[in-house]
Amino acid sequence: MVIKIKIIIALICIYFITVFSTCKKNILGCGQSNIFFTIDAKVYPDKDSINIGDTIYAEIDIPTTLKDKNDDMVDYSKANNLGTDMGFLKLVNDSSVQVGDAVNDFGIQLISGKEVVSSNPLRLKEYSFEETGGRYIFKISIVPKSSGTFSFNFGNAANVIRNGNSCPKAEFSFLLRNTTDQHYYLFPSGSGVAPAGADYYFYVR
Amino acid sequence: MDYHNGFPIAGLSSHLNLLENFDPARTGDHFHWIPTGLFYDMIDIRNDITATPRYANIDDQVSGYTNAKFFNAFTSNIYTLGSYKVNLLQQNGNNQSIQINSLFTQYGY
Prior knowledge:
heterodimer, A: 205 residues, mainly beta, seven-stranded mixed sheet, five-stranded antiparallel sheet, 1 helix, elongated, B: 109 residues
């Protein structure tokens, strides 16, 4: 009887050590993202005013082995759900508080990556990235069809898993400030400060 | 994003930054169906979609609801977010009903 109890206690100990010692697993499985990457996206040419019919490119091109927030190099290849949702907006009557959905104001062509069904097709385009040659690649061209002040952004990718394993999970935060002039001054409520974020503003003549 | 007190939105604690910047539109996120931030969006006056920088594409025109109102709307017959929304509106005189309906829709409910 005593031996049985000892075996049961040992098995319980093994269970808890196994479950709680790896990448923030818990009884219910792996939790939220526990690896954080900050990724430079790019928009070019980053002119604040363009003409109808001009082309803007939005691009992400990164290696699959990346530096995380602790400056450790992490191989995050074979990600299953790495991508971004891009919100396209138009300022209505140049108001600071009225925005309209603007996907239909653009001709948007996918160059690299894969389009995913959008949860809000008038406002959002959703994409997953292509993995090739040790890199994650995503690129679209954006051609405005009407005039006005517009913006689009790269939405962060949260809870990205790899190889079909639910743990670990990573969050990819996209930034433009290191590569692109974001033209915050075009947005009436804009603070002009960009501590983070990947939103881009431009005027179409 | 790794949230801190005051980052990325100044004046918000780390956990409020997480709630405010949750993006339910990213269907690639396995947890996108969890309405993280829905309740905070009904409390705060900040509209995610008109803020700069813009982290989430949520048109949040709801403000002024309270935790007490949220708690009272969780009655024993509530099993879905849809019925919770109806109950919340009924208990509060349909306050901002158009905006509430829009907000729940954007969260996928």
